């Protein structure tokens, strides 16, 4: 029995070593990210459709490349099966595809799909505004106008800059302006210009003198009348048979939410305690949590630690700069992250798991430096296992439109590019569960409390388009012995109970959320 255990253990150690060696020799770079096939996004498709229409007007032949994905939206397929050599998946991770509707029974799927479509349509109505519309400027329009950048606060006024007419000599020059959510007026009168429709949604200006009309155009104002922030009005500008269209964005100024970083030292050094709160979620593992707290205190004695705890019989965790929040039993992993993050009062929050251990390589200052001097919202570090294997878990996430059945979610190992000025850092879409982030941004995305147990990438999928994510491999935190915890005989009673609860999240919970909440029909991934 013992001999067998030792054999198994040796097996694990060998595999661990091999993994480590291979990892160091195969570090993914941006160019090694392989997509299963080239995908055209829908805007290109729309332009291609337009080209088809143009074909009638310009009879010059062209050939559409064959691509099923383009015609029917994204298709759900991964890489083809190939001969399985040992470790081939490590060198060339195969892209697998999962159809997400499998989370539901065939009998309920039709109703689910109908309800999803209803919710999705109202999401589209709320999220797409006139400022997302495709506007094409016609060839040779003698009108000058602002293509973008005109903004007005709801129910307020703005000058419309850049309006100009450029025509050969005519008896009378005229320009018409039409809007649908506001009215036009003029800030100053210019001689020899006739104006009708002042204070209306349609205003006409005309003059026998082009220079006078152009001078007058410099004083045209727009006033938003229909209160609907975060939308846009479409303005049509006409002269004779020519027409141009542009948008005016209607939105409030953003209200800043600033955090006082405290006094900054002579060499620009921050007081980490004023800038960062450490947040974690625990469940049963008080021994591990205490090791984490002790390790933090060696390096950061006054940093606030927020603990969300959904154990059945919570033990009090006390000490200076510690906030312990007790939640209903088994409330869950993401619920705990949410609660912890909701209580943070500093600019940045550092997420750690309760079985992590700070070392002298866990330099929070480096993460602060990255967040302070780049546009990144979140920066991940590296987690070192007891085997010495260090993981950064960098991923690229993308989506493709897929029509009525839902869209496609593609997750690949890798990153986008190096981060300028920080040789150890790269830009990606998802990183490991050891990261520092702008508190406001994390709250904006939120951790979906419906994900009760094993979950991580889901947060970054929800954050796609909101979070600008980076990863640095020179900020390293240790992971308490995992191999021991993975083998049944190495587990303490707490560990056993813990894994029992942790793994109760079925794959179908996550699949159902991807399917309904995120409107995906398919997930392809090589991780
Ligand atoms: C401009 O507006 C006036 C008044 O509404 C209208 O009579 C005229 O036809 C319009 N001109 C163009 C080019 O749309
Ligand atoms: C940093 O801030 C903490 C908490 O506000 C404070 O207790 C500590 O004295 C400060 N440290 C320095 C070096 O100013």
Automatic annotation (TrEMBL):
One Pfam family of this chain: Glycos_transf_2
Residue span, Glycosyltransferase 2-like domain: 278-443
Self-association state and partner proteins as the record states: Homodimer; disulfide-linked.
Domain of life: Eukaryota
GO molecular function, one term: acetylgalactosaminyltransferase activity
Source organism: Silurus asotus
Keywords assigned by UniProt, alphabetized: Disulfide bond, Glycosyltransferase, Golgi apparatus, Membrane, Signal-anchor, Transferase, Transmembrane, Transmembrane helix
Localization per record: Golgi apparatus membrane
A GO BP entry: ganglioside biosynthetic process
Membrane topology: Single-pass type II membrane protein
SUPFAM superfamilies assigned: Nucleotide-diphospho-sugar transferases (SSF53448)
Similarity field: Belongs to the glycosyltransferase 2 family.
One GO CC term on file: Golgi membrane
Residue ranges that the Swiss-Prot or TrEMBL entry lists as coiled coil: none
InterPro entries hit by this protein: Glyco_trans_2-like, GM2_synthase, Nucleotide-diphossugar_trans
Stated name of the protein: Beta-1,4 N-acetylgalactosaminyltransferase
Transmembrane annotation, as ranges: 7-26
Chief subcellular location: Golgi
